[in-house]
Every structure is written in structure tokens, then in C-alpha cells.
Amino acid sequence: MNPIFATMRTTIFEEMSGLARESGAINLGQGFPDTIGPPELLGAAADAVLTGPNQYPPSVGLPVLREAVAAHYRRFQSLDIGFANVLVTSGATEAIAAAFLAVISEGDEVIVFEPMYDAYSPLIQRAGGVPRPVTLRPPHWRLPIDEVAAAIGPRTRAIVLNNPNNPAARVFSHEELAALAIICVERDLIAVCDEVWEHVVFDGSAHVPMIALPGMAERAIKIGSAGKIFGLTGWKVGFAIAAPSLLQAIGRAHQFLTFTTPPNLQIAVAHGLGLDDGFFATMQAALEHSRDRLVDLLAKTGFTTLASEGTYFVTVDLAASGVSGNDGVLARRILSEAGVASIPFSPFYMRGPPPVGLIRLCFAKPDEMLEEAVGRLGSWLTAQKQRDDG
User: Fold this and answer.
1) 361 and 370 in contact (C-beta within 8 Å)?
2) Mind listing the pLDDT tens digit for each residue in 156-186?
3) DSSP for 230-273?
4) Which of 98, 182, 215, 227 has the greatest count of CB atoms below 10 A from its CB?
5) What global pTM score does this model have?
6) What is the arrangement of strands in the sheet containing 238-241, beginning at the earlier edge strand?
7) Helix ranges (DSSP H) in 38-128
8) Tens-digit pLDDT profile for residues 223-279
9) Among residues 160, 243, 149, which one has the least CA distance to residue 194?
10) Helix axes 277-301, 367-389, angle to 10 degrees
């Protein structure tokens, strides 16, 4: 048995969602919307099942989706890409795995930013690499460019950047990204850019793709997710965008992972990517409303939150809210005592110690669910303070 996985626990997402299902708790932990999805895409997928094709599509993806991805990014991010720059994958995590397998050789070091999506480290190790964490610090979570430069050694091969960042809900500035791009160019590093939250940015912010910055077109791998763009997380349709020389190597890894992705879902996503600008603006506005609603409810109930600039998530600072203790213990107590599932921050760290008392809540839910959840959380917070005072 491979030692990387033999000692690994079930992911915190699966654990907390499983406990929520067993107990009937409100699940604000795992990041998925409580909707069936956009009717425009559901209808297109259903039609494609009935009319076909229903056999193996090309491993690189159906031409209609590859063209749609390229056109979508030309429209929304002014990227000069075409058909040959796009590979379709079975979800963004598979794209990340294929990218690591393509660019990492045994003993290569890879810079990762913590807190980080928990798949990065085991996938890097499985590819033969060594993750080297650089820590982002609350409350602003800025990229520590000097620490990145200091962490680079003779075996450093790549940097992994998640922007917008999960779990910190930070949208990195053009200035920060430009500084990181300069490091990549000067030190000849590949940037694996997990940009799945690119359409979920708030307060007038605009997503800046690393691949568009000077010197990055030939060394950045941009990874996107139809699941995040359209709130259809169970479809697991992702894409990798890179220069053909990089993409060819990623495609070779992909063909021995999942090989391909259901054709009806590819056809439906292609249709969705071509919808008018108003469709995407409406989705973004709805999520921004939900973020504002959750933040407002939490503030009125006595919780302190950190800024949420993008993604589906709000970070609650339990320590600043008057509750002390380990974040993992507190999250499990909140689930059992208040009936609300959250995600503690500590599993997102390799090096640690993590910040004290941070948990993540997902706001991509109906208003009434958020209201019920915060009502339960408020009662729990009051009980904790009364117990501490007593």
C-alpha cells in the first residue's frame, strides 16, 4: 500500500458532510449550492443524452466544448487562446492531478500556499514531488512575495496558486500576481493555477488570470471548473488551458486517469459557456446577495467574520467572537450541539500552526436555510458565553 495514502484520513469535507447527513444538520460545510442547477444547462444535457453521442468522446474533449471554452475566456478575460489550448477533464481536481503528473519529476519541489485545498499536497507527493508550504496570514491573506522567493531552491519546479482562494476567500490583486509572475519567469517555474472560482468574485472585482501576465503564456496552466461556474458541482466537468507544448504532456497524463468526460455534459457546458453576459451577471449577483445576507446575520448574532472577496465561503473567527478552543473540536461541537456543519481551517495547513479558531461557512444556500442556520449558531454562541460567565 502506498504510504502517502495509507496513513491519510478521510477528507474533512467528506467527514463533516457525512456527519451532517447522519444527524440531519444544516450543511454549510462542503461548498455546493442547494439548487438543481440552471434549467438552460439541464435541458441541454437531457437532450444530448437522447440524441447522442453516447460513446467515448475524444480524450482531449469534444471540439464543441474546447471551442466554447476558448471563446468564453476570450470574451470574459481577453485571453488569446484557441482550440489547441484547451483540454477537457473530469473535474478540476483531475486537471490538477494531470498537471502535477505532467510537470513534476521525482524529488521536484513545489511551492504551495497554506491554507490550501487539501488535495494539493497528496497529489504532489503521488507525482513524486515535495510540497513546500508558504503561509498566508489573516486577516488580509496577502501573498508574501519575499517568503516565496526565499522558499525557492535548486529543485523547485512549480508554484500552485489558487485564486480566488479557498478557504480564505481572498481575490489576489494584480500587483501581487504580477510580482509572483516575475518570480516564475526569473526562476523558470511552472505556475499551476487553480482558478475555479474565477466567476465568483464580488464588490466589483475582476479576476486576473496568471496566464495573461507578461511571460506566463508558456509557463502557466490555467484550470477552470464548469461545476463552479454554473453551480453544478456533481457534473465534474473541468478544463486545463495551457500552451500546446504543456497541454500535450497534461493530456498524456489525463488519458490514463479518467480518459474522458460524459459527452452529454460536455455538450451542455458548451451551451452554457455561450450564454449571454446577463446570465453570468445574475448568478454573480445572487451569490453576492447570499454572502451579504450571511455576513449580516452573523454580525447581528455576535459573530466576527473576515472579508469574503470571492468563492462560496465566509470565514468566522470564533476566537474574536468570544469562543476559545481548537477549531476542529469546535466545528464538531457546533455540528452536534447546534446542528450546523462547518469546516475548520486546520486541515488546510501542512506546516502550521494554523490560526486559532477559524471555521468556514458556505453561503451558496437559500436565505431561509441561512437564517435557520444562523439562528442555531446564535443560540449556541449565547449558551457558550453563559457557560463561560457562569
Assistant:
1) no
2) 999 999 999 999 999 999 999 999 999 999 9
3) HT-GGG--EEEE--HHHHHHHHHHHHTTT----HHHHHHHHHHH
4) 98
5) 0.95
6) 86-89, 238-241, 220-225, 190-194, 156-162, 109-114, 130-135
7) 39-51, 63-77, 92-103, 120-126
8) 999 999 999 999 999 999 999 999 999 999 999 999 999 999 999 999 999 999 999
9) 160
10) 20
